[in-house]
Amino acid sequence: MRRLADPIARRLARCAATAAVLLLAACASVPPNAGSKPRDPFERVNRHLFAFNDKVDQYLMKPLAQGYEAVVPRAFRLCINSGFANLGEVRNAVNDILQAKPIGAATDTGRLAVNSTLGVAGCFDVATRMGLERRHEDFGLTLARWGVGTGPYVVLPVLGPSDVRDAIGLVPDAYTNPVSYVTPVRDRYIVYGVYLIDFRAELLDATRLIDQAALDRYQFTRDAYFQRRTSLQYEGNPPPLPEDDDSGDAGPRPTGTKTPPAQPSPEDRR
Amino acid sequence: MNDRLRLNQRSGWLRRAIVFAGLAAAALAAGHPASAAEPVSRAEMAPDALVQSVSSEVLEKIRNDPALHKGDVERLQKLIDEKVAPYVDFERMTRLSVGRGWRAATEEQRQALMREFRTLLVRTYSGALSRVTDHQIKMRPFKAQPADTDVVVRTQVAPSVGDPIQLDYRLEKTDAGWKIYDVNILGVSLVENFRNEFVSEINQNGVDGLIKALADRNKALASSPSKS
Description:
The complex is a heterodimer. By secondary structure, chain A is mainly α. Chain A is 61% helix and 3% strand. In chain A, a hairpin with a 3-residue loop joins strand 1 and strand 2 (160-163). In chain A, helix 3 (74-98) packs antiparallel against helix 4 (102-117). Chain A is globular, with a radius of gyration of 21 Å. Chain B has nine helices and five strands. The longest helix of chain B has 34 residues, at 190-223. Chain B starts with a helix and ends in a 5-residue tail after the last helix. Chains A and B meet through helix 3, helix 9 and helix 10 of A and helix 6, helix 8, strand 2, strand 3 and strand 5 of B.
């Protein structure tokens, strides 16, 4: 008891207690066939973590993000969002080099240079208006390019949906994030905090859509995650999935007449 | 390369616009009001022209109607029913989303599935549209052969500031013109995502279980339309 007199220790203890309560409160309903899908053998654990993240989101992240949207003027929010995206160009460029995409690397570097200067430290996205469109690369996609499969689906605490490959990719990505070099450490965590709120605010519309459309939010989010990552891996032109039209109905089948797919054109590959 | 493509595309538009204008003029000259000529020409439109014309019409309606602008979901649903639904093949969408279960389903079950899924889609779509403010639709390069009967039209929905959202449509040629049967947002195909959900629901609770799950979802949405 005496040790807890220290205010910081007391605050930490309170945080730990809150987290434990949240984790206990987040009892997920796990369907009986959980874990039977090849991509999601850890479904049981994942569903509990998903429910935990939901609680964190419900009581912390979402209110913060909504408050941020309500209080901070739109122009300012766009500036912050654009600024973080600009810092992300370092990660994009490094990963484009690792994936042997010289044009992509040049685009990212050009964007970083233009937006950091003309765009006032990334506040405005001047580069897009100049025809240099933003790309997205990260180390998970680099591993994919090197032939590494996704591995099973995992739900990361607080950070949300991921897979084993992409979760590993987060480590090198942290090193290419300029924010991780901010000193003193306290300021770094303030920047990370703003980044998280900005990130959550950006997702408000997407989560609203999932809340409305999904019968099972866990599954909807998981499947959308894999689809999105595959799309990013193939730069918007993923190979078509086998059409599962087992309805037995007569009528035109899409397979024969499909537009020729999948070859990423040179301008897509930038 | 990029510029040339865009230029090609633009001149393609121009050509189509001229043809369209010509058709409209001909219709007027023949004594038909332009509004009566509209559905006919839409049925004859190329898939990319159709997507552009429908999307820009809807976006413009939202921009010019203060009630829609404020996110009046009921009015938005009416707008979608009138302006978008005629160009969507809900039956095919439902069939593809239900997958294997469709064959085993009775006619009544199929009708119920279509009805509930349609309601859910329209509601979700109007929810998404209620967030639209100053967005513009931009067409991306369209590659298809004249003989194709199944195509992907790629678009971007761009706010005045900020990142554009990639929004693609799959269309199939029918006797009544081109019909949309899948929407792809940022690389996520709705049909594909719903199919995973629907198949596991059917595996657990059968077709009637899925119909009930959809109906419950719709009821929950109807009782709290502005739930965020």
